[in-house]
UniProtKB/TrEMBL annotation:
Source superkingdom: Bacteria
One Pfam family named in its UniProt record: AP_endonuc_2
Residue ranges of domain Xylose isomerase-like TIM barrel in the record: 19-303
Name this polypeptide is given: Sugar phosphate isomerase/epimerase family protein
InterPro entries the record matches: IolE/XylAMocC-like, Xyl_isomerase-like_sf, Xyl_isomerase-like_TIM-brl
An annotated Gene Ontology molecular function: isomerase activity
Species this chain originates from: Deinococcus petrolearius
PANTHER family reported in the protein's UniProt record: HYDROXYPYRUVATE ISOMERASE, XYLOSE ISOMERASE-LIKE TIM BARREL DOMAIN-CONTAINING PROTEIN
Keywords on record: Isomerase
Amino acid sequence: MKLSVFTPVFGTLPLNEMLDRVQEMGLDGIELAAGGWPGTTHAVPARLLADPAHLDTFRQELAARNLEVLAVSVHGNPLHPNADTAAQYHRDWRAALDLAARLEVQTVVTFAGCPGGAAGDTVPNWITAVWPLEFLAALDWQWRERVIPYWQREAEHLRGLGLRAALELHPGFVVYNPATLLKLRSAVGNTVGANLDPSHLYWQGIDPLVAIRELKGAVHHFHAKDNLLHPQNIERNGVLDLTPYENIVDRSWTFRSVGSGHSELHWSQIMAELRLAGYDGAVSIEHEDALMSVREGLQRAVDTLKRVVLREGPAEAWWLK
């Protein structure tokens, strides 16, 4: 496995300074933000693709620091019921695919998206209940008319480019847990897999260790981000929490840097489960810890992960000879 960082955390730095910081932390590479949320601070696909010299310079800056682009990331909602909004996110997605192909990066990270609940809707509708029954009817419409047709086309496009999509399991979108990822994968094929981010699983009550086993062979990317649950607030309001992120005291859960929400032993177990599931890709740090500065939070994550990430394959079992 290789350690990387999701680049928006360095959004205020120019490319060279960002890469210097990544090198100083002893990481192997980056997950490059290239459109949609949260933007393209360090890599505008249209510019890189239109100017071979600019693309060559970008590659040289990476090579000079012995770094790789381990994934390209373009979060958005191409299923948005507003046609203009959906079209823009789709253009961002396709541009990121072209950039990944040019950079020879196999994995592109994104969201599955979320449509409206019926034709004519103007805002997305994330359905989380099976009653009243019109919810189930709307869910069936979403998958039949919007989700599967779109991702069937995109899966075919991915195959043509030799790429794969890593859909972040994120509440608010139609793919948010192992069951929904596997549902989509069964409909469109194995070019679509999971970006597994434990921080979005913990608060749903999903055990990442169980999720990784459930998704064996279907994990295409991994976000290293932790979550601290606040039992007293969960007991009061549950986990579907609309309290603003900055109001940490009253929230049911809070994003934390790796090792600040769950123990190092637990993170070691996650790395072992990934290995058992056949995953040997990027472990990409995503910093969204509101209690730590960027420098402190990243250093905590890097220090913890360097102790637990399995960087090499298993040794030959000498004791079985």
